[in-house]
Amino acid sequence: MGESGKERRLMSTKIAVSSGKGGTGKTFVATNITAICAEKGKKVRYLDCDVEAPNGHLFLKPQIEEEEEVMILSPVGVDEAKCISCSDCAEACHYNAIAVIKEKVLFFQELLQVLQDFLLNKLHLSPLNIPYVLKSINKLI
Predict the structure, then answer these.
(1) Whether residue 101 is found in the same domain as residue 59
(2) CA 116, 120, 122, 124: dihedral to nearest 10 degrees?
(3) CA 51 to chain centroid
(4) Which pLDDT tens digit goes with each residue over 59-92?
(5) Cα(78)–Cα(84) distance, integer angstroms
(6) Nearest to 114 by CA among 129, 134, 132
């Protein structure tokens, strides 16, 4: 195709910003990319898929024309009669919210409880120190 303008090929660019860890600046990066592209006259669409805190709208202040509630199923338990402790579920989970420890499948909330119990009972940490230790571990991950 030449520069005649009769047959211009429309280009569409899609940018996805994702991470399984909170607090990494995903919303900051995504909203700034969106704002800069819009300022340059580009047609933009911003889709905030954060399941816990979809707050990109606080920065972009869009005119919302339509809202739709979306439900996503997530694992909350395991069928012990069918589970063979193979760890496939833990390997398939992109957000590291499932672990198999000593042939028991643990989900995120259970993992936190196991960690807290370990810190209290094995390391004998004060309950007041546990939130600080968990924050430190979270920064290392």
Answers:
(1) no
(2) 150
(3) 7
(4) 999 888 888 887 665 666 778 888 898 888 888 8
(5) 11
(6) 134
In a domain, 83, yes or no: no
* 3 and 68 share one domain: yes
What pLDDT does residue 75 have? 65
Name, of 32-41, 43-52, 79-88, 105-114, the range with top average pLDDT.
Answer: 32-41
Confidence of residue 141 (pLDDT cuts 50, 70, 90): very low
What is the domain extent for residue 25? 1-72
How far is Cα 90 from Cα 78, in angstroms, rounded to an integer? Answer: 12
The conformation of residue 107, written as its DSSP 8-state character, comes to E
Residues 66 and 94 in one domain: no
Cβ-contact 28, 35 below 8 angstroms: no
Exposure of 119 in the CB half-sphere (CA atoms within 13 A): 17
The answer to whether residues 129 and 94 belong to one domain is yes
Extract the tokens encoding 70: 């979306």
